[in-house]
């Protein structure tokens, strides 16, 4: 291994650690946290008679091929009249992470796992999140189960929430499952090895597609965006690769959106407060209207998710190649989501992009602290116990989780930009096609169409706005700070 090969990984790792510290995130676990993990039992146990035993079902997990912190499993069961029961099992992280523990305090501080190009900074120690509380293949685990009965057209006609024992029968990856469902590859080996698994996956895929159609008919936005993923050849930085949505990713996404809605409504029905995940109506709606006009379409003057969804659907059919760039512009203009306290019986703010009123985060407690909070609320409601957090505590936690999620995003973005600067630093003076991704008093940003590198436009930005396409020239790079500067080619 050459010194230059080692330098890329080590340089990015050092940058990532400095970025974590600069944004107030813990880059390492304290000795106290690690000691607590060592003292945990080998697995969570429970002697509650109310727990159901669902270990014989054909539970599966679908995630990235290198993921070991598995938060959810899914299984489908056919019912009469064309209905299907979909079960989503969520890892019972709370069973091993006590609120008074140093482990919980660390998780509450960072609130999320941080995924950088150099490494992952997990919210929970790996021995916990990738083993003891992970829904790994062939392991018996405690879980919260979200049960959903879905009609033939993809409508939710019934739901329930309860605790159960589950066992993952197949750890699957997005890529191979998607390729098989699309008919471009044979089934994954585990699908061939486990009787009934192929039919199980096809049933889940069919129901997910019906649910997705229902969501889009109600105004959910069919956007296609992806952050570039840093690809290494050994320890050498090789490329930035855009990873688009796949059929298997959409399957899991559709089930998780529905499960989060069921969870939010369950808490409200039991007079429990909750942390809702909301996306407000976009303040920059007029610019979205302008973008639609530039593409020969028309949107109403006031924010309308349904109208925007229809425009996006039409544009996808007209220009499939350019749709991802349009999606990126719309996402930037809609702004970021946030966590808010939702008191029982009050009107929810809702999620503009998903076109749903009731939405929380509950399906990734190994990776996100709001999901662990929601899990504790659910378990208290299921056990007829008092609310484990006061509304004042939940309000503070909502603000903190939003703040730290933003900090984590900044760390991930900074390291990604440092990797991009490393990749492109030898191309000073070259020209590229780009799209404007940010336009504000503090600066104008563009992303190259290829390679998908984002940087600041330091000259020639007058009159530009998000979504405009321009030609730029690479002017300078700064790997340490992740700065990439372009000038506009007039």
Could you characterize what this model shows?
The chain is an alpha+beta fold and 490 residues long. The chain has two domains: 3-270 and 408-419, no CATH class; 428-490, Beta Barrel (OB fold (Dihydrolipoamide Acetyltransferase, E2P)). The protein is built from 13 helices and 18 strands. It has a five-stranded mixed beta sheet. The chain has a five-stranded mixed β-barrel with strand order 14-15-16-18-17. A two-stranded parallel sheet has the order 2-9. A hairpin with a 2-residue loop joins β10 and β11 (236-242). α1 (3-22) packs antiparallel against α13, α7 (197-217) crosses α8 and α9 runs antiparallel to α11. The protein is globular, with a radius of gyration of 23 Å. The two termini are 44 Å apart. 42% of the residues are buried. Mean pLDDT is 92; it is low at 1-6.
What key attributes describe this structure?
single chain, 490 residues, alpha+beta, OB fold (Dihydrolipoamide Acetyltransferase, E2P), five-stranded mixed barrel, disordered N terminus
């Amino acid at each position: 291994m050459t010194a230059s090969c080692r330098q890329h990984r080590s340089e990015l790792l050092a940058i990532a650690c400095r970025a974590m510290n600069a944004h107030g995130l813990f880059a390492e676990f304290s000795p106290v946290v690690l000691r607590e993990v060592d003292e945990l039992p080998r697995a969570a146990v429970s002697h509650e008679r109310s727990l159901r035993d669902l270990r014989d079902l054909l539970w599966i997990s679908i995630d990235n091929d290198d993921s070991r912190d598995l938060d959810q499993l899914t299984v489908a069961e056919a019912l009469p009249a064309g209905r299907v029961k979909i079960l989503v099992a969520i890892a019972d992280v709370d069973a091993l992470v006590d609120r008074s523990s140093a482990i919980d305090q660390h998780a509450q501080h960072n609130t999320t796992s941080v995924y950088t190009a150099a490494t992952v900074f997990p919210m929970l120690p790996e021995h916990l999140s990738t083993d003891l509380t992970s829904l790994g293949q062939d392991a018996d685990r405690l879980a919260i189960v979200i049960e959903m009965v879905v009609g033939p057209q993809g409508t939710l006609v019934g739901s329930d929430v309860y605790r159960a024992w589950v066992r993952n029968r197949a750890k699957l990856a997005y890529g191979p499952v998607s390729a098989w469902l699309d008919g471009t590859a044979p089934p994954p080996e585990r699908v061939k090895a486990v009787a009934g698994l192929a039919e199980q996956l096809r049933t889940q895929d069919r129901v997910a597609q019906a649910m997705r159609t229902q969501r889009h008919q109600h105004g959910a936005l069919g956007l296609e965006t992806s952050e570039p993923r840093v690809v290494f050849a050994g320890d050498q930085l090789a490329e930035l690769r855009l990873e688009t949505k796949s059929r298997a990713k959409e399957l899991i996404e559709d089930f998780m959106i529905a499960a989060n809605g069921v969870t939010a409504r369950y808490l409200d029905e039991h007079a429990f407060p909750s942390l809702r995940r909301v996306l407000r109506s976009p303040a920059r709606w007029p610019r979205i209207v302008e973008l639609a006009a530039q593409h020969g379409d028309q949107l109403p003057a006031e924010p309308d998710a349904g109208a925007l969804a229809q425009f996006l659907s039409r544009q996808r059919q007209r220009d499939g190649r350019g749709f991802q760039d349009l999606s990126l512009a719309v996402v930037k203009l809609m702004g970021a989501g946030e966590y808010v306290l939702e008191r029982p019986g009050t009107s929810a703010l809702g999620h503009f992009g998903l076109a749903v009123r009731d939405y929380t985060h509950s399906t990734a407690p190994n990776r996100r602290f709001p999901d662990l909070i929601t899990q504790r609320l659910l378990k208290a409601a299921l056990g007829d116990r008092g609310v484990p957090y006061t509304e004042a505590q939940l309000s503070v936690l909502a603000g903190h989780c939003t703040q730290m999620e933003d900090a984590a995003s900044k760390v991930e973005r900074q390291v990604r930009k440092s990797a991009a600067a490393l990749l492109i630093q030898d191309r000073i003076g070259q020209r590229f096609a780009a799209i404007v991704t940010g336009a504000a008093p503090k600066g104008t940003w563009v992303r190259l169409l290829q390679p998908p590198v984002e940087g600041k436009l330091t000259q020639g930005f007058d009159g530009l706005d998000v979504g405009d396409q321009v030609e730029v020239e690479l002017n300078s790079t700064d790997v340490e700070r992740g700065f990439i500067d372009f000038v506009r080619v007039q």
